Amino acid sequence: MKYLLFVISFLSVLSSWSQTPVDDQIIEYQKGKKYIVHVAQAGNTLWGLHTTYNVPVDDIVAANPGINKGVVEGNKYLIPNGVAEAKYADGTQMALHTIVKGDTPYSLSKKYGATVDDINKLNPDLAGGFKIGQQVKIPLKAAVVEGVKPVTTPPTPVKTTVSFSDTVITYVVKPSETLYTIAKRYMVPVNELQAFNQLKTTKIKEGDTLKIPLKKEQIKEVPIREVKPLEEVKRVDESLLFKQKEKYEIAVLLPFDLDSKGSTQLKTLATDFYMGVELAIDSLKALGFDANVRIIDFPSDSAKMVAALKKPEMKNLDLIIGPLLPQSTEMVANWCKTNQVRMVCPASVNSAVLKGNQYVYAAVSSEMTQQAVMAKYVIENYKNDQIVLVNAGITKDKDLYDAFRNRFMELSKTNGNVKLIEIKAADVATYIRKNGNTVFIVPTRDKVAANKFVLAVHKSSAKAGDGAITIIGTKDWAGFDDISGYYKTKYAITWAASSDLNYTLEQAKQMGRLYRNKYKADLNKYAAQGFDVFYYFVQTLLNNQEVKEQVVNAFNMSTVAAGSGFENNQCFILKHVDYELIRVGIYHE
Q: Does 122 map to a domain?
């Protein structure tokens, strides 16, 4: 309980708002000038843009034909930010990303859809490595052109007459609103709003009447400039922009299958997931979040799925959590793309669902990502040992084998050319280093092949002498009971997993106590997944808030390719030590 109270307190601090723009910005270059891209929210005004970015009103008006009719929610506006650097061509867009812990050129390339080379070219001063807090320039569209001369065409003359008059509107506080949310909407600092209403504290309640000081603009002339028409911003884009609303509509699709005699196990899983979601809703309500959450019994039958998605109320949704069944995901994803509704997949999905669909978020890292993460872990922890990649001879595992190998070879080039030996499973005895350490990577989902390999290693293990043998498998090995606890510990069997419910950690302990108090039952991984997924994605997508920790996950979302969906690229490294499976690290791709 203390943990959740800490989260609530921490997020409340994060929500304190000022007139300073966010650190991460989108920059666009046009006609030799540099602009910050601002996407308008409800309540934004020309005066608010002027005070927020400290840019003259005339300059904002000149850059944005049509703004004289008012700032339109969802529109993109260009805020002048100086003269363009010589090396950036007209039409270039870039993100100014502030480095946080764990960022690498590769992770940023995946997140923004740029290449590592492009990022390195734009940031030569970061050649010595990233430091937290530094800003990195990342190209978003037109390529950077080296040696391009500054645009010398004189700008179009601008003659505008802009005046402002003080005005005050009366506002009645709605349910769950705070002084912060109202201040943010109307671009008035909280302290100014508090002083204007002679409030001793920032506490307000439903029905209170506030007076909000605003500036009403009068623009007599707006210049005609050769700029592209303003584009309506899509509800989903590379920058994770999301139109702000006072109340959201959210649906959670779960396979309760109440109208049929379906799988009891599936119904239990859906119920556990829902119980976790319910706890997340309770926590978000404590933060003042207002949403209409619908728990929908989503069928597994395709014909019934089509009927469920055709219901009129579905088109009003802002966010869908679910479905849980992989076979239902593609249909829902296609519907979300057509209707511009975001969806979060809380269980494993085929990565093909993300391609070309920016509305899909995969909360569970794919098997390919897990192998790429494992390659990173192996290079960082075993580069001085003999590293052996084993082909188990299972055709359907070739994708895992290639994913590990390709990422390893990529990383090897920047880590001293770490050697990788590739063998067939039958040759294992030959490649155990005498009196030295050997690491075998066995990327297979096949239970028989995995068990056979472990027995073969054990048969020849004496060859290692005083050295250690480590075996790295896949998350599937968690269910391979034929591999005894003795073997798992002796060979420190390790794998990467998207989630980890570790009851020894404080977050899980506190969540477990809260769960028992509410449901008189013990917390399980499905309930914890429900809590993590709902709480994290509501906070990050709808509330634009950072969530530092989860109970069983470590979310780090990045786009799989430009114009495609987003995947959690972070995994836990789990290793058997002294007959226990422990967490030895968290790595992201």
A: yes
Give the chain's mean pLDDT. Answer: 83
Report phi then psi at 276, rounded to 5.
-65, -40
What is the predicted pLDDT for the residue at 260? Answer: 67
Is 7 inside any structural domain?
yes
- Is 0.90 surpassed by the pTM of this model? no
Least confident of 45-59, 371-385, 555-569: 45-59
Strand order in the sheet with 386-391: 421-424, 386-391, 438-441, 469-472, 494-497, 570-577, 580-588
Asked whether the predicted pLDDT for residue 452 surpasses 50, the reply is yes
Rounded Cα–Cα distance for residues 153 and 399 (Å)? 53
Q: What is the pLDDT of residues 309-344, one digit of tens each?
A: 999 889 889 999 999 988 889 999 999 999 999 999
- The predicted-structure confidence for 62-90, as pLDDT tens digits, reads as follows 888 888 778 888 888 899 988 877 667 77
Q: State how beta strands 93-98 and 135-139 pair.
A: antiparallel
* Total number of domains in the chain: 4
Q: In a 3-state reduction of DSSP, which class is residue 111? A: helix
Q: Are residues 304 and 344 in the same domain?
A: yes
**Strand duo 566-568 + 360-362: pairing:** parallel
| Cα separation, 567 vs 552, whole angstroms | 16
Domain holding 327, by residue range, is 239-365+498-572+584-589
Spatial separation of the C-alpha atoms in residues 495 and 507, rounded to whole Å = 22
As a whole number of angstroms, the distance between CA 583 and CA 589 comes to 18
Residue 93 has pLDDT above 50, yes or no: yes
Whether the CB-CB separation of 132 and 99 falls below 8 Å is answered with yes
Q: Answer yes or no: is 274 within a domain.
A: yes
Q: For strand 162-172 and strand 209-219, is the pairing parallel, antiparallel, or unpaired?
A: antiparallel
The CA distance from 464 to 117, in Å, is 42
Residues 358/565, Cβ–Cβ less than 8 Å: yes
DSSP letter at 173 equals P
